[in-house]
């Protein structure tokens, strides 16, 4: 008998408009980020576009939805509140999992609880968060990592840190022994050569070595706004590394396409696991959400 489970993957929503301009949260980085929004990003990212993709996913009734960060732009409290309201429209916490991106943890919050507002969507009932976390959804074990750290102006790099890496290794090895389908969620690209140095995961080499030791059935990320499929050798089967485009891109920008999301169907039976990967999104700004591509990620020997 074949067990099936579907997972939709969204990333980089960059909700608009920006609001909540209290003076106490402003600094050089946020001023520069706001100027970037005014002169570039507001002409690219539209929450209405993300809502169209979410509506398409809802029509397909996935078993769960994962969002790999950058729900907002400047990490302001009002943005976090608006993102929480948006998450509630996407689905309930038992149906949606989110991790933060660098725009969500952007700069100093001076004691504000920040992304802890979304704690219920990160497997916690409290305002305090702990990473990495594990959420069990059907046959899947979602391992949520936080690569987002405060950075100086002109930098968008990430860091997991030794503690997160140590705990993640224990979790992934234990979940493998249990026979869970392990899906790792991270915002930054997992390999160092996937983006420019000022934007990359600083401990990407350590993270890659971890995945080589533990393996994983799937790694999902965002950050670059460019869809990609790569493979990382591991102790057993190669690990598929799948990037999502921005879910809110109403205008193509450079190499960044119009809005897209990933839809995975996991088929597991006694002979092994197969993962079907469908990309859905816009082919024209005013057109319908359609299937862009479809293939299978073969993870069995």
UniProtKB/TrEMBL annotation:
Xref: Gene3D superfamilies: 3.60.21.10
Molecular function terms, GO-annotated: hydrolase activity; metal ion binding
InterPro entries recorded: Calcineurin-like_PHP (IPR004843), CNP_phosphodiesterase-III (IPR050884), Metallo-depent_PP-like (IPR029052)
Protein's UniProt keywords contain Endoplasmic reticulum: no
Record domain Calcineurin-like phosphoesterase: where: 6-227
Record's keyword terms, sorted: Hydrolase, Iron, Metal-binding
Domain of life per record: Bacteria
Family as reported in the entry's similarity comment: Belongs to the cyclic nucleotide phosphodiesterase class-III family.
Record-given protein name: Metallophosphoesterase
Source species of the chain: Hyphomicrobium denitrificans 1NES1
């Amino acid at each position: 008998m074949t067990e099936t489970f579907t997972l939709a993957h969204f990333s980089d929503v960059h909700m608009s408009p920006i609001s909540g301009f209290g003076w106490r949260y402003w600094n050089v980085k946020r001023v520069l980020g706001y100027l970037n929004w005014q002169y570039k990003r507001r002409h690219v990212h539209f929450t209405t576009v993300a809502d169209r993709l979410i509506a398409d996913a809802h029509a397909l009734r996935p078993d769960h939805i994962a969002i790999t960060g950058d729900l907002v732009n400047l990490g302001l409290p009002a943005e976090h509140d608006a993102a929480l309201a948006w998450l509630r429209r996407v689905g309930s916490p038992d149906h949606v999992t989110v991790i933060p991106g660098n725009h969500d943890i952007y700069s100093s919050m001076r004691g504000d609880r920040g992304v802890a507002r979304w704690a219920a969507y990160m497997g916690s009932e409290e305002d305090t968060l702990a990473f990495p976390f594990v959420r069990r959804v059907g046959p899947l074990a979602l391992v949520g990592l936080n690569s987002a750290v405060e950075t100086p102006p002109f930098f968008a790099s990430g860091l997991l840190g030794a503690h997160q890496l140590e705990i993640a290794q224990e979790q992934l090895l234990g979940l493998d022994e249990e026979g869970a389908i392990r899906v790792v969620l991270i915002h930054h690209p997992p390999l160092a050569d996937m983006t420019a140095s000022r934007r990359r995961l600083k401990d990407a080499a350590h993270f890659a070595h971890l995945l080589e030791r533990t393996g994983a059935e799937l790694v999902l990320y965002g950050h670059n706004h460019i869809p990609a499929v790569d493979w990382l050798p591991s102790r057993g089967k190669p690990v598929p590394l799948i990037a999502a485009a921005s879910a809110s891109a109403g205008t193509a920008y450079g190499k960044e396409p119009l809005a897209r999301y990933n839809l995975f169907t996991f088929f597991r039976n006694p002979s092994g696991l197969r993962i079907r990967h469908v990309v859905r999104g816009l082919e024209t700004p005013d057109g319908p959400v359609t299937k862009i591509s479809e293939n299978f990620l073969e993870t069995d020997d």
